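Example: Dolichol-phosphate mannosyltransferase subunit 1.
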Amino acid sequence: MAAPGPGRLSVLLPTYNERDNLPLVVWLLARTFSDSGIDFEIIVIDDGSPDGTQEVAQQLEKIYGSDKILFLFPSGTAYIHGMKYATGDFIVIMDADLSHHPKFIPEFIRKQKEGNFDIVSGTRYKGNGGVYGWDLKRKLISRGANFLTQVLLRPGASDLTGSFRLYRKEVLEKLMEKCVSKGYVFQMEMIVRARQLGFTVGEVPISFVDRVYGESKLGGNEIVSFLKGLLTLFATT
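Written out as structure tokens, the predicted fold is:
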């Protein structure tokens, strides 16, 4: 199967303390793309990890070659910095903590071709999508956040807080210019702004697995900032 469009697929992988996860996620990505005949590059953007993630990324760059793995120190927002170096016509954004499995990316590509979508978003809340490894509290928070967002913003997509997505490069660039949120609200704002600007969004059910190594960043502060961001979006869209 050919990559979408004439060029290659760029994967942006922001990292922070992912020393244990990075080699495995890169291996899974490389295997998936090789098996599917997809031309690719993986751009690792590390936010000053103190655990040795940078050294691991540099070793991976040597192993796979700099045409396949590119390691960057971010200056400003990781996604914006990574986009400057991306050579693909389409960009995948995903987490490096193994919660997003690369096996779904060929499905994203098929979905994109099927409907010529500007964005294809992985959804945990549709079809056979799901969440594994979360306790009841995390599931309730996530479901509640999604429900609130659906009621207030009516975005036309089933999973607003997930971050596993495929974008046309020029669409991602336009959205990054418009989006002002940080953290969990950022992912939600990307879809809301996409709808505002008339971009099309397709969805693919995914299995989300809670991170194996390291700690989740979800806490009371994130919940408060999510609610503030949601209300801000409601007031300004």
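The chain has one domain: 9-236.
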